[in-house]
Amino acid sequence: MCRRKLSITCERNWKMEVYEILRKTLKYAEDRDYRGYDPYDALNSPILRAMGFHKYLRIAFIQAFKRSPINFRPILLVRPGHNPKGLGLFAGVYAGLGDREKFDYVKGLLLKYSSKGYSGYAWGYNFPWQSRVFYVPPYTPTIVNTTFIAHAFLDAFEKWEEREFLDIARSSCDFILKDLNRRVEEDFQVFSYTPIDRLMVFNASLLGAGLLARVGRITGETHLIDEALKAGMFAVRFQNEDGSWYYGLGSDSMKYIDNFHTAFNLLSLTEILSASEDRRIRESFEKGLEYWMKHMFTEDMLPKYFNNRLYPLDIHSYATSIVLLSRIGEMGKARRVLENALERMFHPSGYWYFQEHKHYTIRIPYMRWSVAWMAYALSHLLLI
After folding, report:
1. CB proximity list for 196: less than 8 A, separation 6 or greater
2. Which of 35, 329, 361, 368 has the smallest number of CB atoms closer than 10 Å to its CB?
């Protein structure tokens, strides 16, 4: 017997316990038809949307909702919705588990919510959002959403070998290559976050590159791998001397180093490496991984938010840490991260808390940010 409820310290039983936690997490989502709130969905309030005519007011609304431990959304008429990225994460889980019935149901939702009018399948968020630079209407496709969802279809193709799934993911490569803005230099290229911006964000561009690499490896299209490698060189070209990456290049507001975006960079580089084995990419990955392992965790494997600050303990950092640690074979460390998440961030009803701050915890159940991501992480821990 294990020493305490939800402990996964017993070697013999840990996979069974993780599977039970995953099933409980999935049931929470299934019982709600995968609908939920999101940390950034404030502008889905018709009241706030009417008031937020100025970009800084819109930013203030979004940040106030995100930081509050009290959920004001029902009062301000924000309804739980289907978030395409969350649906994509759930689809990837079901493909990994081989649950065809539930995968097909989520697939139907994903096709319904795909963004129309682009060169291939693409997806955005189910809410509008405002950055310091531009306003993004709901369902404007992003490279991040599209990449994760396309990977779920590749997972389904590898599980069931149905060409339709590969074709959907392949078409998303056309969205990346034809619809996004690109900065192209002699030794690297970088993809924009959406079709309406020109930001140079490491994790976003690299996630797109990782998808190109994986599709190219499966289809044998070497030009996709070449495009991925050139985008991967963006990470090599602008990696800091200590192995870290800033969130992005440009304004000072992007010069920070955090846990889960660094993990996304590293996960994307593994996809590029699986298709190219390029020495420069490998050296960049190894240097970045060493930095991440050294600076992004406490000795007890609590995932820090920033390289120089522990709080807030964010469920995204837990989840992406489990995924990456599982991917590189550090199963003991991945399990310890999960133990910490169970002790601090898990609600008995099956959902996961958003953030633990030094003096309070935000326990609002966010379907995409928390529930879907932890289901995705648990499945990786089980299946890799």
Report:
1. 134, 136, 140
2. 329
